[in-house]
Amino acid sequence: MVEIDLNMVRAGVVSHPRQWKDGGWHEIIDPPRRYRIIARDRLKQLLNADEKTLTDSYEHWVQDYIQEGTKREKIWTEAIAAGSAGFVEDIKTRLGKKTRHRQIQSKGDGAPYALHEPVAAYRADFGGKNDVLRGENRLFWDVFDDI
């Protein structure tokens, strides 16, 4: 959750998630009375936390990430699913045929498991069919400044 709330901080749009009104920070720290996105009771149950512990912990986690430089952690942003072995296996099972060539990996030492796309899928040779994407065919936005 913190990883997602820091997207706008990493992008330089805001300096703290509280400044992004559509982010999850407000859902955790100052939840709306109606139309909640996060199932707070379930989240508290999963974290074994009461209301105060949840909000205090979340604020602390966000602050820690901001002080560390808000670097992106690839495991959470590039995987189809990441977490415990059981959770990732369950997601793979639920996705069925869509995960035929996808692999579950972990770096060990307590690191989370992740379901990844095969790297080869992005290195295919299209035999010149993508020539339109070559550098000399790019059009930069600044050419529209004079229009």
List the helices and strands and how they pair.
Elements (H helix, E strand, L loop, with lengths): L1 H4 L1 H4 L14 H5 L10 H8 L3 H17 L6 H4 L3 E3 L1 H11 L7 E4 L6 E4 L31
Task: Characterise the protein shown here.
This protein is mostly helical. The chain folds into two domains: 2-72, no CATH class; 79-122, no CATH class. 36% of the residues lie in helices and 7% in strands. It has seven helices and three strands, in the order ααααααβαββ. Strands 1-3-2 form a three-stranded antiparallel beta sheet, covered by helices on one side. A hairpin with a 6-residue loop joins β2 (103-106) and β3 (113-116). The mean pLDDT is 77.
Number of domains: 2
Q: Approximately what portion of the residues adopt beta-strand conformation?
A: 5-15%
Please tell me what the overall shape is. Answer: globular
Structural class label:
mainly alpha
Separation of the first and last Cα atoms: 43 Å
What proportion of the residues is helical, as a percent range? Answer: 25-40%
- Poorly predicted spans: none
Number of strands: 3
The main sheet orders its strands as 1-3-2
Major sheet: 3 strands, antiparallel
Cα Rg: 20 Å
H/E series: HHHHHHEHEE
Q: Quick check: average pLDDT?
A: 77
Total helices: the number is 7
